[in-house]
Design goal:
By secondary structure, the protein is an alpha/beta fold. Helices cover about 40% and strands about 10% of the residues. It contains 17 helices and 9 strands. The longest helix has about 35 residues. The N and C termini lie far apart (about 145 Å).
Length: about 500
């Protein structure tokens, strides 16, 4: 027993002397906490969304957020997306900046992308399938704005060089093979994101890749791909048109080392995959979906997969166009396109002086002898007078029917009406083609021309004729009403 005790004491004594201070209990705890904190998702990451108005920026981000009813703002909007690491049970928020497509708001870009968050920002460029003819102008416009803005930032040259090299490494180290590890294992996170030091033997970049390196992860997203069926029906788009569009935009993505996604929020295509890819590129979370190029409305091409040889496959289906053709010659804007909103066409009013001048010219052209002589006033065209106006002074007399219902009963009534209408038609003053003028200071008489001669009609005679005409019209109305009542009774 004593031997055993001495042996135990001999074993334990030197072990206490050989204990390293780094292996102290508290040091172990602090080291474990530090290790766990380094694996947590960072909270300083952000996404910048650029694109023209109506390109689907707000709707796309709302879909990634899980929001059903998105509300579009103006200027520079801010939102966030909840990101969860299921394996480590960690949650963080990914900030999202959405810049309005109005050029007047470009100065707000400095709040979303600056010196401090340059290395932690991913850029999304949105295009809409509803206007494929404007893709070239839109991409060149927003890339230029982004490039000019980055050039104006005071970024540490070493930091920018690291960002640019990181993009190069992504393309050099991309691999389609999936290892045999557990799909949910965190080891998968670093398997495809190799460091610069580990890629000493990496292959050179393919032809045309990253010729313009902005140092930022760029994802080109084509929204509203469900509109392809409308393009086929209304504008006669064929597969070769969509292949031409795809090969062009894929060549553009090669230049800037960008990824490409075709999405449709309406049909929920590639939206979930876009969310997973963003978390993969920003946080290093696993992304095991390979490139998708079979379905024309659900294309998915991650950064590092594409090259010119793969793009050349699309050239086989292009019969009526060539890859090097000017884009807008093949995908041209239609001359007349149905608008979604039912806006009324704006009416442009004519300048007031121009309108009055034109009316004066029309009036001057209208003062001709042919316009001044009316058939109603001409004695030589009595036939026209009788056909145009009942009771006019013609040789054929008045028609027996004034209209379909009124039938004057006595010739005396026709005479009274004829005199009244003749007084109006042959009245010289106030007529458009008459040569006389009214006398504003004289109310008792008015000139009148009858059969080439002139006589005076007093105001009392005029009033008398109007009174007689009114009485005759009233009598005729009562007579016709009685006839109608009598006919109705007889029918019964």
């Amino acid at each position: 027993m004593e031997i055993l005790a001495s042996q135990v004491n001999g074993l334990t004594t030197p072990r206490k002397k050989d204990i390293d201070p780094k292996e102290n209990l508290w040091s172990a705890i602090l080291s474990e906490v530090q290790t766990q904190s380094s694996t947590k998702l960072p909270s300083n990451k952000s996404v910048l969304v650029l694109g023209d108005n109506a390109s689907g920026k707000t709707t796309l981000i709302a879909k990634l957020q899980g929001v059903e009813d998105p509300k579009k703002g103006s200027g520079l909007e801010y939102a966030y997306i909840d990101v969860r690491d299921e394996y480590r049970d960690d949650v963080t928020r990914l900030g999202v900046w959405i810049l309005d497509g109005d050029p007047g708001h470009n100065n707000l870009l400095k709040y979303a992308l600056n010196d401090s968050n340059y290395a932690h920002t991913l850029v999304i460029l949105t295009l809409s399938m509803t206007t494929p003819w404007s893709w070239v102008d839109q991409l060149q416009h927003w890339i230029k704005i982004l490039d000019d803005h980055i050039a104006g930032l005071k970024i540490d040259p070493e930091e920018k060089q690291q960002c640019c090299q990181r993009l190069v490494t992504v393309w050099q180290s991309y691999c389609d093979t999936i290892d045999e590890l557990d799909p949910g294992s965190p080891i998968k996170r670093t398997n495809r994101l190799s460091s610069v030091d580990d890629d000493l033997d990496a292959l050179p970049l393919p032809e045309g890749v990253l010729t313009t390196n902005l140092g930022l992860d760029v994802v080109v997203v084509v929204t509203k791909t469900d509109y392809m069926t409308t393009l086929e029906k209304e504008l006669d788009y064929r597969d070769e048109h969509f292949d031409f569009m795809q090969q062009w935009i894929r060549r553009f993505c090669l230049v800037y080392g960008a990824s490409l996604f075709y999405t449709s929020v309406k049909e929920d295509k590639n939206c979930d995959l876009l969310y997973k890819y963003l978390t993969h590129r920003i946080y290093g979370l696993p992304f095991r979906t390979p490139a998708l190029i079979v379905e024309k409305d659900a294309v998915l091409i991650p950064a590092g997969w594409d090259n010119m040889k793969k793009i050349n496959i699309l050239y086989e289906n292009m019969q009526s166009c060539k890859p090097d053709d000017y884009y807008n010659d093949i995908i041209a804007q239609p001359p007349s396109r149905k608008t979604v909103s039912n806006r009324e066409v704006e009416v442009q009013t004519e300048e007031e002086q121009a309108f009055l001048t034109r009316q004066l010219q029309l009036l001057q052209q209208g003062q001709t002898p042919t316009r001044g002589e009316s058939p109603m006033r001409s004695q030589g065209s009595a036939g026209k007078a009788t056909t145009r106006t009942p009771g006019s002074a013609g040789a054929q007399g008045s028609p027996k029917k004034v209209d379909g219902k009124l039938n004057p009963c006595t010739p005396s009534g026709e005479g009274v009406l004829a005199n009244f209408f003749n007084s109006l038609l042959l009245k010289k003053s106030g007529s458009p083609g008459g040569g006389g003028a009214s006398l504003p200071g004289v109310t008792g008489i008015s000139p009148r021309a009858t059969n080439g001669g002139s006589d005076l009609v007093t105001a009392n005679d005029t009033i008398s004729m109007r009174t007689d005409a009114a009485m005759e019209l009233d009598r005729m109305t009562r007579s016709v009403k009685k006839d109608l009542d009598f006919s109705d009774q007889s029918d019964c």
